[in-house]
Automatic annotation (TrEMBL):
It holds the Pfam family Kinesin. This is Kinesin-like protein. The keyword ATP-binding applies. The keyword Cytoplasm does not apply. Residues 407-746 form the Kinesin motor domain. PANTHER family: KINESIN-LIKE PROTEIN, KINESIN-LIKE PROTEIN KLP-3. One of its GO terms (biological process) is microtubule-based movement. Belongs to the TRAFAC class myosin-kinesin ATPase superfamily. Kinesin family. KIN-14 subfamily. Residues 96-344 form a coiled coil. It comes from Punica granatum (Pomegranate). InterPro entries: Kinesin-like_fam, Kinesin_motor_CS, Kinesin_motor_dom, Kinesin_motor_dom_sf, P-loop_NTPase.
Length: 767
């Protein structure tokens, strides 16, 4: 059998991981409050492997009572093993929670220490940066002020030197001025004396002029006298003879007059020369006076300029003195500030050293905490791995019990709220967090009343398509192992059934279960080639619309296509037939041989475009029919000549809806009535199976008649109950959950693996 050895190996590995590579001993399992339920019995790995590999043996294979008793005893032991494993798992989970809590506490402490140390470091670094900035700015200011002070001192020294030089020059100028004033006074005195002399000379000149005038007048009188004398001479000459005696006396008089005249001329010339000399001296004195006046005026101007310059220099010297005093005061203040800042810097450096020491201690503590966290994380990872492996083993044991019981597995999936749906009324669904109900329970509130349900798995709105598929991947694998597998989605319209089964086309992350299942089948087919397995696969797709079967695959494919299509026609009547081996046939249905995922994707897209879809008030694209995808798998192992035959049925049921909400009329009304009728027939079948009635009404609708092998045969069946979280749909959600609970309680028989050597039929059947 394919997978038998692998399953046993996985079970041994799982218990090896759970027990840390050793067999479980009485002291190896954690303490549990539910230990009394197992009656103190503990299981080793060999016990569990023996229990899983145990085959029920009977003396007479037709003695069904003995077989049932043995099977019930086997189921009781499995339940006992499962309860013991749940106790072990609860112990590991509690240890996992304790480790998680201690890890969180250590991480919080570490985070707080790191945050506080970072805050302290940032605060100190900011203080140091600020102090350094202040110190640099103060040093710059101090350097600038010192430069200004030195410049002011230099200018002050220069001003002092200038002041001294100006004072010296002023003293020399004062001395020169005094000398000039003395010279001026002496010059003035000389000028005064010269003026007096000039006045005297003028007076003397006037007297000389008067004397000259007198001499002139005397000369004139003398000339007149001479003329008169000459006349008289003439008269005398005439009378010379007469007057020869008198001539000598007159000659003497004339000679004396002439001598006096010459003496007067000589005196006149001497006086004229003296006047000329006096005039030259006077002009020289005047020139000296003018020069002295000009020198006095120039010296006066220079004295005024020196006085003004000295006044300005004194004012500037006073200003510079004031500035120097201010600069000295500022320098003193800045020196005090620098000393205070240096003190603060020293204090900050000491604090920094202290904080550095505390930081080193904190880092050491952080390293210890990190080591502790690393140890806790490793222990947590080990515990999580053990929990995961234990959960896998629990699921395997649970699935084994369900398969032995023959129950239909039910998964519940709640879709997210749509943007147009209001959450003002509050949430209608919640999920319990207890150990038994975690991931399996759902609570629904309607009209203030709480309804609780438990299923094999519950997917919350945040669950992705990948997470949903992981839970059913092993069930899909069973189809390759020779089992009949049926997965169908049930729920009201707009609850997400088609999204769960088909997904959104064009978005790889949101592919539905059907394309993911097919991808897994083709990947597994390829991986099993190395083990000698070869598989042939056939696909068909149909819909049940208004209690009428419609073929969704095209019937006019060319010879170049890889897939082979059997006779199909859109106008043909399709009938459902069951044979004695439990196989179901649909007559005249198009069947296609497929070899790759691309071919199946093409067929799925064609079927999706051919399916009946309509718009209602509850859903813009509401599926108006039941969609059935079927893949028949035939596998042959060439080395062992072992053959398996499996069937995979993936069904997207139409959604139930109320006419008051959907607002359907005309054709939509007929579609709604047909959908509700078929779903009601499905509910009747489930009720009959739950009550184990002798007659099961499979023939009441074509849907239930088509699903008869899945609901009442040896098939592995799983139902997805899709729920809307909208509070206004709580009534329909409650009906869906109740129906899902009844389906989960139904026992349809133990799944059987189909093996044999007979050839695979070309006609597709719905097992």
């Amino acid at each position: 059998m394919v997978g038998t050895a692998t399953a046993a190996l996985r079970a041994r590995q799982a218990f090896s991981v759970v027990n840390g590579g050793q067999d479980l001993c009485p002291n190896s399992a954690p303490q549990s409050n539910a230990g009394s339920e197992c009656g103190g019995i503990e299981f080793t790995r060999e016990d569990v492997e023996a229990l899983l590999n145990e085959k029920v043996k009977t003396k007479n294979k037709f003695n069904y009572k003995e077989r049932c008793e043995n099977m019930m005893e086997y189921i009781k032991r499995l339940r006992l093993c499962l309860r013991w494993f749940q106790e072990v798992e609860a112990g590991y989970v509690s240890e996992h929670e304790r480790l998680t809590i201690s890890l969180e506490i250590a991480e919080r402490r570490l985070a707080e220490i790191e945050v506080s140390s970072l805050n302290k470091e940032e605060e100190l670094s900011s203080i140091i940066v600020e102090l350094r900035k202040n110190l640099s700015s103060v040093q710059e200011k101090l350097a600038k002020e010192q430069a200004d002070k030195m410049a002011a001192v230099d200018s002050l020294v220069k001003e002092r030197e200038g002041r001294l030089s100006s004072e010296k020059s002023q003293a020399s100028l004062s001395e020169e001025l005094a000398r000039a004033q003395l010279e001026l006074s002496s010059a003035n005195q000389r000028i005064a004396s010269v003026n007096d002399m000039y006045k005297r000379l003028q007076e003397y000149n006037t007297s000389l002029q008067q004397y000259n005038c007198k001499l002139q007048s005397d000369l004139n009188t003398a000339s007149e006298n001479l003329k008169r004398v000459e006349k008289e001479k003439a008269t005398v000459v005439e009378n010379l003879s007469h007057l020869r005696g008198q001539h000598s006396s007159l000659q003497e008089q004339f000679t004396s007059v002439k001598a006096s005249h010459e003496e007067a001329s000589k005196q006149k010339e001497v006086l004229a020369n003296e006047v000329q000399c006096l005039r030259g001296d006077l002009q020289q004195v005047r020139d000296e006076r003018d020069k002295n006046r000009e020198q006095v005026e120039a010296l006066t101007v220079e004295v005024v300029k020196y006085k003004e310059y000295t006044g300005r220099s004194i004012a500037e010297l006073d200003n510079l003195t004031l500035k120097s005093n201010d600069l000295e005061a500022r320098c003193l203040n800045q020196s005090e500030q620098i000393r205070t800042l240096q003190d603060k810097l020293l204090i900050a450096e000491t604090k920094l050293q202290e904080y550095g020491i505390s930081s080193v201690e904190t880092q050491a503590e952080c390293q210890e905490q990190r080591k502790l966290i690393g140890d806790l994380q490793s222990r947590l990872a080990d515990a999580e791995f053990k929990v995961i492996e234990g959960e896998k083993l629990r699921k395997k044991l649970h699935n084994t019990i369900l398969e032995l019981k023959g129950n239909i597995r039910v998964f519940c999936r709640v879709r997210p709220l749509l943007p147009e749906e209001s959450s003002a009324e509050g949430k209608s669904t919640s999920y319990p967090t207890s150990m038994e109900a975690l991931g399996r329970g759902i609570d629904l509130v309607q009209n203030g009343q709480k309804h609780s349900f438990m299923f094999d798995k519950v997917f919350m709105p945040e669950a992705s398509q990948e997470e949903v598929f992981v839970e059913i991947s092993q069930l899909v694998q069973s189809a390759l192992d020779g089992y009949k597998v049926c997965i169908f989605a049930y729920g009201q319209t707009g609850s997400g059934k088609t999204y769960t089964m088909m997904g959104k086309p064009g978005i790889p992350e949101e592919k539905g279960l059907i394309p993911r299942c097919l991808e897994q089948i083709f990947q597994t087919k390829q991986s099993l080639l190395s083990q000698g397995w070869k598989y042939d696969m056939q696909v068909s797709m149909l819909e049940i619309y208004n209690e009428t079967i419609r073929d969704l695959l095209p019937s006019n494919r060319s010879n170049n296509d890889v897939a082979r299509i059997e006779n199909g026609s859109a106008s043909k009547q399709y009938t459902i037939k069951h044979d004695a081996n439990g196989n179901t046939h649909v007559s005249d249905l198009t069947v296609v041989d497929v070899c790759s995922m691309r071919e199946v994707s093409y067929l799925l897209n064609h079927a999706a475009h051919s399916r009946s879809v309509g718009r209602t008030q509850m859903n813009e694209q509401s599926s108006r029919s039941h969609f059935v995808f079927t893949m028949r798998i035939s596998g042959v192992n060439e080395s062992t000549e072992q053959q398996v035959q499996g069937v995979l049925n993936l069904i997207d049921l139409a959604g139930s809806e109320r006419l008051s909400k959907s607002g359907s009329t005309g054709d939509r009304l007929k579609e709604t009535q047909a959908i509700n009728k078929s779903l009601s027939s499905l509910s009747d079948v489930i009720f009959a199976l739950a009550k184990k009635e002798d007659h099961i009404p499979f023939r009441n609708s074509k849907l239930t008649y088509l699903l008869q092998p899945c609901l009442g045969g040896d098939s592995k069946t799983l139902m997805f109950a899709n729920i809307s979280p909208d509070p206004s749909s709580s009534g329909e959600s409650l009906c869906s959950l109740r129906f899902a609970a009844r389906v989960n309680a139904c026992e349809i028989g133990v799944p059987r693996r189909h093996m044999g050597t007979r050839s695979f039929e070309s006609r597709l059947s719905y097992g």
